[in-house]
DNA sequence: TATGAATGAGTCTTCATTCAT
DNA sequence: GATGAATGAAGACTCATTCAT
């Protein structure tokens, strides 16, 4: 029996990589880089810990790779808000829902971990410096400005409004992950009251 | 040198304990129980790590003691809102400011850590189960109800309003600690818009 | 494609075996059994590491096989000195050059590794015990005795002379492999001065 | 009971450090950096492996520290030959004996390991580049030149003579450590024949 | 009471070896 | 026969905890 052909090999490799990254994301996002043991990731992915090292040279590399990916993904997520239908407030509502939904949360949390935990690789620290919330703020300026222009958003300093709103969302996202304590996810309309005229 | 009398001994002991707990709180609140090394606490307290074990049997015990204290303290903090002068919205504003100020944050953060991190002692997990946000909500029902009655707060489900508002504050507190990324602390008036009629 | 007949199969198998042993010799000789990874041998041989195990059951077996071969080969090398033309001193000169030349060094170095490194299989340790330098000494007694008889070598204890000379050569061989530090390979005439009358 | 005073602490620390370095030297010299396990050093020093890390940050650091020390020591050893009594050949004889004696061998072997093994820290590689045999050769030029002048050494290229002689000694030192195989340590007079006129 | 040397369990990482294809 | 994915034992290193002084 001849060995698998190159394409099959490649496919297996790629699938495994995805499987590992997906498992790692889940764990890293919740427990940070220090709190995460490679054995946890291996268990989550259903493979041996040794195999992790066929795909990623180290815990740091795995973490860094995920952070890079997360930055791209969150970038795109924010960006895609412009494609949505409706008025500015509709888009903001959709964005808000999206951020608070379980779905895309992990990437965001990972970035939070990358920003706030110890033991984060130097490279990630660098990435984070260049990738602060300002970036998101800038991406949303056009949307919020239009909202002000059409009277759907309150007047006032644009950047402050955006970053305040994002901060509230960020905080909720961080709380969101843990079902434990009885945090209540506020309804979107309540949150929008902060920025919408009454 | 005459030996200290018993009372003086006691006093020194108590001061040391306070010193250690204060240092430990600062570190645990920011780094969680896993991310905190006993040597960090010792350094923060300006003593040798060996000495810690004269006062606390283990890292777990120290953490647990602090959590118990934090629960009492945050309880009192919430409770004390009723002593403040002014109308309900004034009191809520003051409470909000208090929670977002650097000052009392550590205890709250410690509870957040206790609730969300790994490696938390079983006893603390038990404490947390019995001490969810509902407790705070109950404590604030009277205040918020009065606010609704006098027309300072919007109508609607009382408990949901309180826990939503607390969740937003909680999220912001968690973000608050890290100066890093460019999180913006929203102005109190903006936050109050969520619960106050225009 | 008709399957190869049995003889062809055999031949391929033997060639592969040779190819692997040749690669392994090169690596083991320089890095010892511990410092050598199976993947290095596979890379040197241009095959996958998995394939090694079709030909040799383990690293130990591969190493042991090579050592056995090396012992035979060095035996023959020493022996063949008698076939060379010229007087005893001519033969010794040729032997010296041969040992110090890059060429046949690997087998000798492998034996050195087998003798001096850790992690050497028990079986090899046994082999080495029975295969000390005495063996070489015995093989060279006739040659050196003749050298003394014809006055080309200094008088004195024969065995001591041989083993001293071989020790010097052995030491130089060990140094020889590494081009790094600036070891100087002494000229043969200088070395011969140790045993030749002036 | 009060803790030890500072001086006592220091003394204990220094003694332990020496004890560890001495143990490590013994093991590294024979087995190289890869073949040496920290547990071997700990065992040799009679302490736990954990304690090693109170004194040296890593295996690499320990190895590097030893190599630096060895370079200084071997430097001094060579240098001290000039203090010895007697004619040049007497001094060379003494140096030879010294190098082949068990005593100072470990440092030399460590340098040999540093020069030839894998897994050597980058810093050591750098050290070695700047510290080749040329250095020893230079230090001995005056001695050997004088030997030629007084007719105790053969004429001919000075540097080549020195480095050839040192290479022979080096090779013997490397063999010397292992009692195993039956290597014969040549008598000094035999070795001196390489460089002395009949 | 106070210090820091000492220990060892637990985690990351490497690599010989196995095995499905 | 050939490949490389997969496993797990073993070694480097960290850190909570103990203990002599």
Automatic annotation (TrEMBL), chains A, B, C, D:
Please state the span of the N-terminal signal peptide per the UniProt entry.
none
- Annotated ranges, domain HTH tetR-type: 14-74
Q: Which InterPro entries match?
A: Homeodomain-like_sf, HTH-type_TetR-like_transc_reg, HTH_TetR, Tet_transcr_reg_TetR-rel_C_sf
Which keywords accompany this UniProt record? DNA-binding, Transcription, Transcription regulation
Among the Pfam families in the record, one is: TetR_N
Which SUPFAM superfamilies does the record associate with it? Homeodomain-like, Tetracyclin repressor-like, C-terminal domain
The residue ranges marked as DNA-binding region are 37-56
Q: What is this protein called?
A: TetR/AcrR family transcriptional regulator
What organism is this sequence from?
Paenibacillus baimaensis
From the broadest rank down, the organism's phylogenetic lineage runs: Bacteria, Bacillati, Bacillota, Bacilli, Bacillales
């Amino acid at each position: 029996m001849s060995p698998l052909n190159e394409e099959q090999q490649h496919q297996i490799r790629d699938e495994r990589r995805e499987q590992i990254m997906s498992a790692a994301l889940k764990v890293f996002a919740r427990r940070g880089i220090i709190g995460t043991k490679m054995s946890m990731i291996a268990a989550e992915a259903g493979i041996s810990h040794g195999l992790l090292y066929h795909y990623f040279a180290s815990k740091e590399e795995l973490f860094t790779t995920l952070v890079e990916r997360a930055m791209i993904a969150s970038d795109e997520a924010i960006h895609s808000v412009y494609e949505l239908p409706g008025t500015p407030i509709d888009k903001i509502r959709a964005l808000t829902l999206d951020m608070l939904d379980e779905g895309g949360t992990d990437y965001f949390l990972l970035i939070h971990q990358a920003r706030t935990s110890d033991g984060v690789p130097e490279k990630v620290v660098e990435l984070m410096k260049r990738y602060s919330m300002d970036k998101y703020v800038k991406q949303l300026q056009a949307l919020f400005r239009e909202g002000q222009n059409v009277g759907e958003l309150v007047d006032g300093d644009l950047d402050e409004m955006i970053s305040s709103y994002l901060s509230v969302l960020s905080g909720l996202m961080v709380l969101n992950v843990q079902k434990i304590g009885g945090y209540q996810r506020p309804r979107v309309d309540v949150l929008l009251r902060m920025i919408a005229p009454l």
